[in-house]
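Homework help board

Subject: predicted structure for assignment chain

Our instructor gave us this sequence and asked us to write out the predicted structure in token form, then describe one feature. I got the tokens but I'm not sure how to describe them. Can anyone check?
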Amino acid sequence: MAAPGGKRSPADGDAGRNRRNMAIDVVRGYCIILMISSHVAADSWTNQVLHFLRFVSGAEGFVFLAGFVVGMVYRRKIETGSRLKAYAALLRRARLLYVTHCLMILALVGPNGLLWRYGDLPRPATIGWGPFLWLTATLQLQPGHMMNILPLYVILLAAAPLGFELMRRRMTLLLLAASGSVFVWTQYQPGAFSIVHESSGGDAFPVAAWQFLFVLGMSGGYHVRWLRSTFVGPRRTAWRWGLGLACAALVIVVNVQTSGFEFYDHLRWDATLWERHPLRAGRVGYFLISIGAIYLTAQAAMRYSFLVRPLRAMALMGRNSLYCFLTHIVLAFPLVALLGVAPRLYEFMPPIAVVIVYHLAKRQVGRPWIPN
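My token output:
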């Protein structure tokens, strides 16, 4: 998609046949940094600064952008080949994530109580090895410690062919209406359609709510050429400034709270507007404004040579998102344990973890065994 004036933006990537959209990879890399920081040192000042967009986390970005990339990439596959082969590829991806999730549960939760003792993880000996294996195989076991999001992707990717069939038949509005209706229902019935077993300690990513972000992203990726030519391309600068100012205003509104002044009653309304468990409509709206502003800002930032190197580093992590997710889990276990003997390292944990994960991704350490 050409930028205004007929010149192609270096970040457009053409939803391209030969090039990736670097701005999308940069935003995914930013989400990875947010994820790593919150998992190794959630209460650190470093993490608070990185999460300057209060009530927006890396999880929303991952789910939305995963849907966007799936919509963009698999539309090309459908148009240039067999749609059945494209759908088979989606199901293979879902199978890969399913196997990865099950192996993670067996490797990290299985030894709980034997090799280590995490109070927030279930113990197989307590619930019984038979039920433990059954709950793992049926995706009902979704414990904390970063092991509760892959089942969401498994279900969403497995159901994605249905969404593509609706969009291919020009029924995108019907898809969005159905997805939005289910999301609205979850605002009143947060536990709707939950399959998570009580031993997991709660449903962190209920499918009925989080599917809405994925479907929004998938439909946006599927129609990305039309969206760019009709809305974004002709008004790119206006969108950048408009979304940027709206995002800045929201940051001020949700963060300003003093003993003498606040924009609204935070104690009363924060849980209703911005809660993540369950996923609230206000949080989704805040995220959509923020992700649009960040994406357009990333595009603009690529014009400045001194920013190219750090942006490329973030893009590399974005291109290796599943790899970074899996390696950071393996890394987080010993780093969190290290805090028990070296608490002064707490503030340094996020940058240390990010640098390690970046270099692992750059050198593709263990890549034959770690999927991406």
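Reply (TA_rk): Your tokens look well-formed. For the description, you could write something like this. Residues 15-363 form one domain. That's the kind of observation they're looking for.
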